[in-house]
Amino acid sequence: MIVFVDLEHERIQQDPDLWQRAYAWRLRTKYRLEAISGDRCLIVRYDRLDPGLLRAIKARAVVVSGCYTDFEHYSERELAGLRAVFHQAAWPTLGFCAGQQLMAEAYGARIAEIGPLSPGERDVYADQRVPGHVPGKKAERGFMPVHILSEHPLMAGLPSQAEFFQAHYWELKELPQGFHNLARSPITTYQAIAHDRLPLFGTQFHPEYFDDKHPAGRRLIENFLRIALGWPEDLAGASILAGGGTQGTTTAPPDGAVKPESQSGNG
Predict the structure, then answer these.
(1) What are phi and psi of 146, to 5 degrees?
(2) What is this structure's pTM?
(3) pLDDT tens digit string along 71-114?
(4) Which of 53, 98, 206, 245 lies 20 to 30 Å from 78, alpha-carbon distance?
């Protein structure tokens, strides 16, 4: 089973429209993970996650979402279980955007806003209702090119310049201890990271947002699941199902072309 950790704070319910959009995105991502892996996917809220739960349900991989809400609204008590999962590193784990940021922070990296806009630079969130966003802050939003720096298995099959969906105005300010950098963009240096020894991976961008014109995100998720579930190289899009050892051919995602929604500064 794959566990998809919902990192969104409950305060998002104060905005019913935004809450419904976030809820729909979580459900869509769950179905996409199931379609790509051929395995089941369980959504678990971040404050209900801990290593004991993952052991009890025999989780095989963990994926951590982004969020609309800035981290100042989260308590350490609520995040303790997720941090423990990062530190134990007993399950292959991939963090999207804010998920990467929390993973990096757990290993000593500093995270912060990208910085102020340069004179005349456009505010990409100016016409968006994004909680916590302060006008005048530099950000990345939309499908944008990312330069691949490494031949790491997470990046297998991707061109040197791949387009991924961006939605953030926070970023890693340094590489966490034990990790190396896999990709960068003109604005954000640490677009994808991987631990040197542990099965921990993160992306500042959102690979779960992909469509027929922008397939790189799906390929990266396939690569992660290949690493996590032990697929042979020729089994992209199939998984070795838990317990049975049989190969499960997957179907296409339920919605191949998706209009991305805006995410917060964390992503």
Answers:
(1) -125, 135
(2) 0.85
(3) 999 999 999 999 999 999 999 999 999 999 999 999 999 999 98
(4) 206
